[in-house]
Design goal:
By secondary structure, the chain is mainly alpha-helical. It contains three helices and two strands. Strands 1-2 form a two-stranded antiparallel sheet. The longest helix is centred in the last third of the chain and has 30 residues.
């Protein structure tokens, strides 16, 4: 219940800010990928400014996520290796416990 309230408290204002940003930045901008010819570019797109900014933000989030995932790959590999070793050691421990329970205790003879 608290999680839903906190989510609503965060998401509702965030949605209002995003909507206000989109309404305030409706003007159309031309995005050109031809630095040599500004009059007749080889490729140009006219999009509203908020669409361009949203696309760039999404691209940045994806690029940052991929970079983080690649950077953590070494730790993920080490964690998988440690988990496998842990599983093998638990199996060995269970076998040793089973063997110990199956063997009768050694009796000490009096001197």
């Amino acid at each position: 219940m608290i999680r839903k309230i906190v989510t609503a408290v965060i998401l509702v204002p965030l949605a209002a800010i995003i909507i206000a940003f989109a309404v305030a930045n409706r003007q159309v901008v031309t995005v050109s990928f031809d630095p040599f010819d500004t009059v007749q570019p080889a490729y140009a797109a006219s999009v509203p400014l908020f669409v361009l900014i949203f696309i760039l933000v999404i691209f940045g989030v994806l690029l940052g996520g991929i970079a983080t995932w690649l950077r953590q790959a070494r730790w993920q590999w080490a964690a998988r290796r440690a988990e496998k070793e842990n599983h093998e050691l638990r199996l060995q421990l269970d076998l040793l416990k089973r063997d110990l329970a199956a063997t009768p205790p050694a009796r000490l003879s009096p001197p």
